[in-house]
Structure formats: structure tokens, C-alpha cells
Amino acid sequence: MVSPKIKPVLNRRLFIQEHVKEKVKKMEESVKKRNLDPFTAATKIFNNES
Amino acid sequence: MIKKFNENYIYQPKKDLNISDLVNGISKANPAILSKAITLLESKRKEDKALVYSALSKLPLSENKSFRIGITGSPGVGKSTFIETFGKHLSSMGISVAVLTIDPSSKINGGSILGDKTRMEELSRESNVFIRPSPSKGELGGVTEQSYESILLCEKAGFDVILIETVGVGQSETHVKHVVDFFLLLILAGAGDELQGIKRGIMELADGIAITKSDGDNEKNAKIAKNSYQNAIHLLPAKNNNWITEVKTCSSIENKGIAEIWKLLEKFQNHCSENNWINNNRSKQDVFWFHQKLNQFLIEDFLSKNM
User: Alpha-carbon distance B120 to B87, whole Å?
Assistant: First the structure.
């Protein structure tokens, strides 16, 4: 059983998972091409939006 | 209830803004709305920040991109006085100016004086000038977490030039370079030997150096310092935009050398428009802030759930 305090920390492990890494890379490309501003891109990743 | 004080100023009681208020106000460069938007960015409440982010994404980019200039230097070098004179020079030429100043926050009680608007008394009276001080909140690097968003807000409001006055920085606090096109370093004559000029860090990031307070008895020292720094710059590595840093002297009180500094900035703009460097650099800055924001969101989320 995971303590409720530790759970969010484990959830953050999401960000080292492969599919999230890929998403970060894709968003980075969009930001680089200036199709998306950095805040919208970061919010999308954080809220798990496509 | 609206209470009218005079023809130009209308007092409006405080109310919560919505996205359309923000979008309309910022696109019309309404100083009160612009200030309020920056206040919301500085808020610790997630909903406040989200409101401004939504407004930012709805605002179209202004046709004329603003020229973003970072002004830095050690405490007492004369940053605020320089901005007052420089800003008035730009304003007199019909150039609209937004000044974002960063004030140090106390480590003991967290407060900031935010007195830069008072120090720029004449500039703050100009109709095409917007001045907004922000607390550093202990952030290192000379700028705050919200500096980049504040710059974007001013850019979308259509200001021609955005001046960012940093907290008085040392030799390694160079975060400000990630938010500006041109980085102007102010130096006081006689504040160090020639070796100061070849130190890495802030010196190699500067696109221009101005030796301040070049008036009265200090004029001779300023000229000597100018030559020393100009010689020292040749020892620093070349910049990727092939721009060669220039050193100027100026006196903000006597309004000497200010026009020359603006000419230097125009020369830089022409140089960079030839190789599209400003656009490429801004795209790199966007990627930097994307990672910064991701980290910030993670930390905020972690702290909100664990503290």
C-alpha cells in the first residue's frame, strides 16, 4: 500500500516514461517552430492533453 | 459605480477580470489591465496564472515585434537613472516603451520596495511609456519566473521597445540573456582592473557595454575604462551571430552618449535582421522557457500535494 504522501511523487515518475519523453520532444518541436507558446505546451503535457 | 475624477482618468472599483477583459485591455495597451495581468502572473493561485495563460494564447502577435533589451549591472551603477534618460530619448522619437524592473526581495520578510517607478518620475509621466516593477522573490539570474510572460504581454500590447532592468547582478547571474534580444551591461569606471573585462560569465554575454557616470571629474576615468574594456573584449570568444560587442561611455544626468547607445542598438538590429538571428534566438528562448515551465509546474504540483 502506497502512502498518500508518496503517491504524487510516484505519479511524477510518469515524466520519465518513454511515451511522455516522446510527447515532450514533439511539443519541443512545436515550440521551436513557434506553432505553440511555451506555456500552452507545458500545460498540455502536464494535463496530459494531446 | 464609476466615479469620474477628470476627463482622462476614470476610477473603476476593483473587480475580477475575465479572459475577454484581459484580451481587450491588453490588445488596447490599457496600462491598468496590463499591470493587473502581470499581478495575476505573480499570484500564487493557479487559477490566476491559468487566466493569463489563456488570454496570452488568445492574443494575436502584434505585427511589429518589440525589441527586447536587457539592462544589467552591479547595484549603484545607475541602471534606473540610465533607463529614465534612455526611455525619455526613445519616447521623444515617438517610440513606445515598456519598462519592466525587477526589485530584490528581502530574504528575511520577503518584501520588496518596488520604488523604481518613483525613481523614474519624468519617464512615468510620458504617455507612451509603461513602467511595472516586480519583486525578484529570491530568484537568481536577475529576472523573475514571470519575466518572460510579462515581456510577451507587453509585446502583444504593441510596445516598440521593452526594457528589462534586472536586479543588480554579480558576475554569474545571467538568466536575463534568455529573455532579451540585446544585453546591455552597465559598468562604473574605476570599479576594477582590466582583468574584470576578460572574466567569463556576464562579460561574454553582453552585446554592448556602457560606462556610466561619464561626467565631471569621472569623464577621464570613463574614457580609460572604455579603452580597457574594448581591448579586453577581443580576448573573449566570438558570438554566434558574429556581432562584436562595442563599448560606449554615457552620462544619464547630463544626457551625454545616450543617442549613441540607441544608434548602437539600431546597428545591432540591422546586423541581426540580415542573418535572421533574432527569430532563431527567440525560438531557442521559447524552448528554454518550455522546459523551465514544465519544471515549475512539477514543483508547484509536488509542493501543493506534499506540504
Answer: 9
Q: State the cell numbers at B207.
A: 552585446
Q: Do B306 and A5 touch (CB under 8 A)?
A: yes
Nearest by CB to residue A27, choosing from B57, B290, B297, is B290
Q: Residue B71: enclosing H or E segment and its boundaries?
A: strand B67-73
Highest mean pLDDT among B104-118, B190-204, B262-276: B262-276
Residue A20, min C-alpha distance to chain B (Å) = 12
Residue B5: pLDDT over 50: no
Task: Write the CA distances from A18 to A23, A25, B287, integer angstroms.
Answer: 9, 11, 20
- State pLDDT tens for residues B195-249: 554 455 677 888 999 999 999 888 999 999 898 888 888 887 788 888 999 999 9
Do B75 and B164 meet the contact criterion of CB atoms below 8 Å apart? no
Angle, helices B31-42/B147-156, rounded to nearest 10 degrees: 160
CA dist B88 and B253 (Å) reads 12
Q: Give kind and range of the element (H or E) at residue B305.
A: helix B277-306
Q: With an 8 Å Cβ cutoff, are A37 and B301 in contact?
A: no
Q: What confidence tens digit (pLDDT) does each residue in B90-112 have?
A: 999 999 999 998 876 665 665 65
